[in-house]
Structures are given as structure tokens and as C-alpha cells.
Fold:
Amino acid sequence: MKLLKTKLCIAILGLASVAAQAEIAVVVHPSNASDIDSSALSRIFLGKSKSFSSGDQAVPINQEESNSATDEFNSKVLKKSGSQLKAYWSKLVFTGKGTPPKAVSNDAEVISLVSTNPNLIGYVDAASVTGDVKVIAKF
Structure:
């Protein structure tokens, strides 16, 4: 009986962890027609590229570290943990070679900013997407 309860608890925890992983949508202004793959996204959000494929300026918008969308984006797109990114940006800031993207507090702020500026690119929980922005990728 005890073994059955243990297996049941493990199954429930496994399902909960799958449900906790939200789908992330990368969003841009509706007028942005650039093609962006995951490599280009990573380059933009790591400060290695400053423009979209169209040549227009690309300004990434992050969310605060405490936001679950940030963890998902960092692991799925940037392939880095929060501590790895802190070390990465600390080194670039210290050497004067870069500054991290501006961070906002939630999905609504990202959508508000991106919907009013064609140069911005950000990420939100896919369930938060509105018609004010264009989804270019989901992870």
C-alpha cells in the first residue's frame, strides 16, 4: 500500500512539473516582417546582434528574473540558466562590451511596449498574447 502511494505521488508531481512549463511566445510589433530563427533570437538577446534580418534596429526586452517566463525563455532559447546569464552580462558590463536588455515586470508591460515600437522584441507566456503584437516563434 505504501509503495502504491509513493508511485501515485511521483506521478502527480511529474504531471505538475509538465503543466508548470508554460509555452513562451516571442513577440514583435505587427509591422515587423523580419525572419527570425532561434539562433537569431539568441544573438539578439545576448547582445551579439543589434538588428533584425531586415536591417532595422532590434531592441530586446527581458522580463524580471523572478518571472517564470524568463526562466523558460532562458533555458529554451538562450540555453542558459539565470546564474550563467548573470555571469555573462557581468563580464560584458565590466569590460564595457555590452549592457543587458531592459527588464520589465510582466507580460502586459512587454506587450504594451512592443505594440508601440517596431524595434522592440520580447517574450511572454503564450496565453498572454493579444492582437496588439505579432508572434514570431513559440517555445
User: Anything to note?
Assistant: The chain has a mean pLDDT of 89. The first strand starts at residue 24 and ends at 28. The helical segments are 2-20, 38-45, 68-78, 82-95, 107-116.
